[in-house]
C-alpha cells in the first residue's frame, strides 16, 4: 500500500526564520510560502534529492499547528507523509483493519494539489501519518 516517503513535516513558530535557516545555514532550496486556509497552515517545502521537508506555521489560533506549538513551543516533527496510488482504496483498507482516519474521512486537497488524508497517531506508534495520492 505505501509508496515512498513524500515528506517529513516540521511545525515551526516562525516560518520565515525556519526557511532562512534551511536556505542560508544548510544551503537548501526552499519554496515560496503557500497559504492553505483549509488546513490552517502556511507551508514551505525544502527540496532534497530524495524527498522533501515541509515546514508548517499555524494560520491563526484555531490551526491544529497552533495547538501543537502550544505543547512544543520550539516546534518539532509533526507528521510523516507517505505516497499511495489510490487514497480511497487505502482509506477503506485502513478503516477495515481498525485504523482511524482523522476529520470526516474524506480526502482533502493538500499542498501539492493532490488528495490527502491523516491517520490517528495513536494507531501508528504516536506518529501522525499523512497519506498523499500520487
UniProtKB/TrEMBL annotation:
PROSITE patterns: VOC. It catalyses: (R)-methylmalonyl-CoA = (S)-methylmalonyl-CoA. It holds the Pfam family Glyoxalase_4. It is an enzyme of class 5 (isomerase). GO terms for biological process: L-methylmalonyl-CoA metabolic process. Its EC number is 5.1.99.1. SUPFAM superfamilies: Glyoxalase/Bleomycin resistance protein/Dihydroxybiphenyl dioxygenase (SSF54593). Residues 4-134 form the VOC domain. Signal peptide: none annotated. This is methylmalonyl-CoA epimerase.
Amino acid at each position: 500500500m505505501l509508496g515512498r516517503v513524500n515528506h517529513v513535516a516540521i511545525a515551526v513558530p516562525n516560518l520565515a526564520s525556519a526557511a532562512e535557516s534551511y536556505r542560508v545555514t544548510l544551503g537548501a532550496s526552499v519554496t515560496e510560502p503557500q497559504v492553505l486556509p483549509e488546513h490552517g497552515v502556511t507551508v514551505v517545502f525544502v527540496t532534497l534529492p530524495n524527498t522533501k521537508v515541509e515546514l508548517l506555521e499555524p494560520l491563526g489560533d484555531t490551526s491544529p499547528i497552533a495547538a501543537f506549538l502550544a505543547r512544543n513551543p520550539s516546534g518539532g516533527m509533526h507528521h510523516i507523509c507517505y505516497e499511495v496510488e489510490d487514497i480511497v482504496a487505502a482509506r477503506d483498507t485502513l478503516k477495515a483493519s481498525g485504523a482511524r482516519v482523522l476529520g470526516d474521512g474524506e480526502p482533502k486537497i493538500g499542498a501539492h494539489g493532490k488528495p490527502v488524508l491523516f491517520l490517528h497517531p495513536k494507531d501508528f506508534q504516536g506518529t501522525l501519518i499523512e497519506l498523499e495520492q500520487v
